[in-house]
Amino acid sequence: MKNKLLLLGDEALALGAINAGLSGAYAYPGTPSTEILEYVQNNPVARLRKIHSHWSSNEKTAVEEALGMSFCGKRAIVSMKHVGLNVAADPFMNSAMTGANGGLLVISADDPSMHSSQNEQDSRFYANFAIIPALEPSNQQEAYDMAQYGFSLSERIGMPVMVRLVTRLSHSRAVVAADAEPAQENQFKYPENTAQWVLMPVNSRKRYNQLLDLREDMENEAETSPFNTLTPGTDRRLGILASGIAYNYIMECFPEGCPFPVLKISQYPLPRRKVAELVASCDAVLVAEEGQPFIEQAMRGILDNGPKIYGKLDGILPRAGELSPDSVAAGLCKLLPDLNLAVQVREPSTTVVARPPALCQGCGHRDVYAALNAALDDCASPKVFGDIGCYTLGWLSPFNAIDTCVDMGASITMAKGAADAGQRPAVAIIGDSTFTHSGMTGLLDAVNENSPITVIISDNLTTGMTGGQDSQGTGKLEEICLGLGVDPDHLMTIDSLPKNFEDMKKLFASEFAYEGLSVVIARRECIQTARRHAKAKKLS
Amino acid sequence: MKKDIILAGVGGQGILSIATIIGNAALRLNMYLKQAEVHGMSQRGGDVMSCLRISTDPIASDLIPKGKVDLIISLEPMEALRYIDQLAPDGHIITSTEPFVNIPTYPEMGTILQELESHGNCIMLPCENIAKEVASARASNMVLLGAATPMLGLTTDDIKQSIRAVFESKGEKIINDNLAAFNAGLAHQF
């Protein structure tokens, strides 16, 4: 019995995991992955079973927590955006060494075109780097099915499995046929091989050899995977290797069916025999993949003297940004002009102007930036080190208030480094959720050297940019700062309200003048969550 | 039957509710559907769009190829023009005429309306005004949906049933307000 549901790719994967006997979901919010954990939090079966779904402080803690659940034999998922995997890289890489006991899926959602990200790194390189198999669903149904499949694969070979999503699957809805009855959770059961979980050199050396042998099993799994399919074609001038959602764009070009042989790849490591079979069946191969040219590079090698390969490295397909049915059609036409895929297109409008995102009206970050800019007016060469969150929008007009934005937590540490170099004033601005994600350790560095920086924690009591998820430091920020050793005389709290403009400006200015570490917590609830809370209160 | 639709507007205007209602109807009618949205940074007052594809046959891509869009349904007139190069030669535009001005460089209204009209097959209506008359400003998106329904390839009854289903948990008053706004949009003859 199947239920038909309209689900985002993120939701389909989450439901697939719940129905496959999930016991714990772990995550830190990040676009486009946030809806995975949110779905588990709101799912009735997950609630009834008390499946773990609390947000973690960051992606590293999330992966380690999921690994602990896997250690106990239970099925776990951990989800994050692509750059979150950088934060979690240490446990991710080493989870290949420990292996998994209960099925473990590490879900990394890439954001090609950088809709809401700093870069477009491709998570498949991490899977390859760690020697971990990866699944790359091409549609919402596969995202659902791959949860059960991925858990089984993970338990069969005793390895974590990566699931790589991309924005256009994570945030696109389609009809999914889902099991009506969820499977039972795994029994509590410790790993059989205990030494493998203690990564001291004597164990690691042994395990690494085993991991290298396991790689062959992983490739054999990919050779026989139901998700890697080779479809023969009638036109042998070109073969197409299409992975993940790039497969859909190829198919969109040929509504009557693709005339060329197509190898669809949705499971890694790359199945070499299947790839060779495709190459043998045609004159040249076009590699269509979302993200960086991972498969294409592997197929070309550094000598690139094998069969003719086309793709992103030669500009047939665009190297930057996400693919589209248009860019794929254009690439095919470059290779085979007789395909005649061009359509009549209207000229773009010249009237339309850009409408960049902006901080909401009534957002406390606005008041912080207004006061900050006013306080810095008298400084000869101020620098403000920004961070990741809604307040990154402070770079845009009308505030033009920040000078850097690099990664979670880098505001405090870059301000410290700049102060070490002689920068005065060096101001860091960071949100509450980003502070507990990766700001606390940097603040300890600044405490230990009493660095002359001013850290503004713009506390909106939530994780705002991703839609208002619980923030792990809510109600604890002063205690955390004091616990880390911030001087109580230079730890200030103020409500970031328009009426406090003068007070906030004066407070900032006096702390900028202080030759030591100051922390100012400027607090006001996010206007979006405040509205939601008011509405919920009215209803109850 | 196959319709490729772009839903356009500004973050927070309510284009996703339109998608949810059409999606609900398509699911009930056992049709195929794909709907790509944008979340995250651009939702904060920036331009937002959603590709909505419904079909009686399987759909390959989540994104609609350029020049193949059957309908642009927009809650904001300049946002309707943003996707004009994606509209099929025989495609339709259904847009609200009320501008959402949150940028200093917003173009002349006259230029926008003239350009919209120049494309032909363009239905323009003051959704918020109409919504205020029959229900409340918040139901503007249902006025727009009403005006677009004759071109959706779904019946009026199917859409009405989905409005009921989607707003069911919000009580009879909200359902009726949304249905009134929908009917007003539907009755808007051009």
Description:
- The complex is a heterodimer of chains A (540) and B (190).
- Chain A has 3 domains: 2-223, Thiamin diphosphate (ThDP)-binding fold, Pyr/PP domains (Rossmann fold); 229-339, Rossmann fold, CATH 3.40.50; 364-531, Thiamin diphosphate (ThDP)-binding fold, Pyr/PP domains (Rossmann fold, 3-Layer(aba) Sandwich), CATH 3.40.50.
- A 6-stranded mixed sheet of chain A has the order 2-3-4-6-5-11, sandwiched between helices. Chain A has a 5-stranded mixed sheet with strand order 8-10-9-12-13, sandwiched between helices. A 5-stranded parallel sheet of chain A has the order 14-15-16-18-17, sandwiched between helices.
- Chain A is of the alpha/beta class and 540 residues long.
- Helix content of chain A is 40%, strand content 17%.
- The model of chain A has no long low-confidence stretch (mean pLDDT 97).
- The longest helix of chain A has 23 residues, at 201-223.
- Chain B is of the alpha/beta class and 190 residues long.
- Helices cover 39% and strands 23% of the residues of chain B.
- Chain B has helices at residues 15-28, 77-82, 109-118, 127-134, 140-148, 156-167, 172-187, and strands at 2-10, 32-36, 47-55, 69-74, 87-96, 122-125.
- A 6-stranded mixed sheet of chain B has the order 2-3-1-4-5-6.
- In chain B, helix 3 (109-118) links the parallel strand 5 and strand 6.
- Chain B is globular, with a radius of gyration of 16 Å.
- The interface between A and B is large, with 49 and 50 residues.
- Strand 7 of chain A pairs antiparallel with strand 2 of chain B.
Briefly characterize the structure.
The complex is a heterodimer of chains A (about 550) and B (about 190). With about 550 residues, chain A is of the alpha/beta class.
How many angstroms does the end-to-end distance of chain A come to? Answer: 37 Å
Mean pLDDT of chain A: 97
Using the coordinates shown, work out and report the CATH topology of the largest domain in chain A: Rossmann fold
Tell me the name of the CATH homologous superfamily of the largest domain in chain A. Answer: Thiamin diphosphate (ThDP)-binding fold, Pyr/PP domains
